[in-house]
Design goal:
By secondary structure, the chain is an all-beta fold. The protein has no helices and seven strands.
């Protein structure tokens, strides 16, 4: 199975490092989902929820905005929680 490497960071430190199946992020215009093979992007995030699926389990993390980078099946999210 193709997976994404997800890194969620905050000013206080690392919140999560995991291999996940997908990540949904609260983009400024609308939420969007990142799957393996996604094009490289850097984007701002608004207040909302980061949703990710790890080993079939869905998890939600509320955030207060931030930024995300997607590159080479790695999603790095810098947020306020």
């Amino acid at each position: 199975m193709n997976e994404l490497s997800l890194h969620i960071l905050s000013p206080e430190g690392t919140i999560l490092e995991a291999d996940v199946e997908l990540v949904t992020l609260p983009g400024l215009l609308s939420p969007f989902t990142v799957l393996p093979g996604h094009a490289a992007i850097v984007t701002a995030l608004e207040n909302g929820t980061v949703r990710y699926v790890e080993a079939g389990n869905e998890t939600f993390l509320p955030i207060e905005g931030g930024f995300a980078e997607v590159k080479d099946n790695t999603v790095t999210v810098c947020v306020e929680v």
